[in-house]
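User: Here's a protein and a ligand (NDP). What would the complex look like?
Assistant: Let me lay out the input and then the predicted complex.
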Amino acid sequence: MLNYRANEDYLDKKIILITGAGDGIGKQAALEFAKYGATIILLGKTVKKLESVYDQIVNNGGNEPAIVPLDLKGATKQHYIDMGNTIIDQFGRLDGLVHNASFVGHLGPFGQMTEEDWHAVFQVNVHSQFLMTQGLLPALKKSAQASVIFTSSGLGVKGRAYWGAYSISKFATQGMMQVLADEYEHSSIRFNCINPGPTRTNMRAVAFPEEDPKQIKSPAEIMTPYLYLMDNVASQDNGQTLQAQ
Ligand code: NDP
C-alpha cells in the first residue's frame, strides 16, 4: 500500500461523502479526492469551514461539491434516512463514505467521567456512525464498488489512562467496521479502517498541547491509505486497519 500511486482522474464520477470535512484530516481527504476527479459531499458542523473547502475545490478546478451542515451530536435516524434518499435522488448512488469526524470530549480519571461526557463522545464517535451507515447503505448498494472508511486510533487498540470515552469509542469503531466487513464480505461494499497516527490538526493540538507540531506529520503527508482505499484496486481489502504512518 505504501508504494501505491493514484492514477490521474481515477476517482472520476465517484461520489464520496466525508464527515468532518471542514478541517484537519477530513478537509485534506476532500481536497485530495476532488483533485482525482471525485464529487465530494462535505459534511460538518461549521458551515464557514465547509464553504472554504468548497471554494478551494472549485478554485482548483474540481467538481462542484455538495455541503451538508450537520452536527452529529444532535442528528437523528431520520436525518440519515433523508440524507440517503437525497443522495440517491441527486447522484444516484454513493461510492465512498469516510467516517472521519470525532469528538475527544473531557480527558481525565475514569472515576470522574460523567454520564454526559460519556454520552456526548459515544453519540458523535459511535452512535452517529451506526445510524449514518445504516441510512446510507441503500445508496452504497447502488454503487458498483463502494468503499467505507472508518477512522481508528492507536487508543482503539490499546486503552490509555485518562482517555476514557474517546479511547473506548475507538475500540467500538474498530468493532463496527469488522462486523460490517464480515457481514458484507460477499457484496460490492468494502469496509476498512485507517489509523492516521499523530497528525498536525486542531484536535491534536488541543489533546497534546506540550507536543511540537513541527515534529509530526501534516494531513497532506498521510493521504496514501485514503487514496488507496477509495481505488477499485483495493476491492479485495475488507476488514483491514491500515496504518497511515
Ligand atoms: P480535527 O479536529 O482537525 O477535525 C475534525 C473535524 O470533525 C472538524 O471539521 C469538526 O468540525 C468535525 N466534527 C467534530 N465534531 C463534529 C460533530 N459533532 N458534527 C459534525 N462534525 C464534527 O480532527 P482530526 O482531523 O485530527 O481528526 C480526524 C479523525 O482522525 C478523528 O476521527 C480522530 O479521532 C482521528 N485521529 C486523529 C489523530 C491526530 O493525531 N490528529 C490521531 C488518531 C486518530 P468543526 O471544525 O466544525 O468543529
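Summary: The pocket of NDP is lined by residues 20, 22-26, 44-46, 49, 71-73, 100-103, 124, 151, 153, 196, 198-199, 201-204 (CB under 6 Å).
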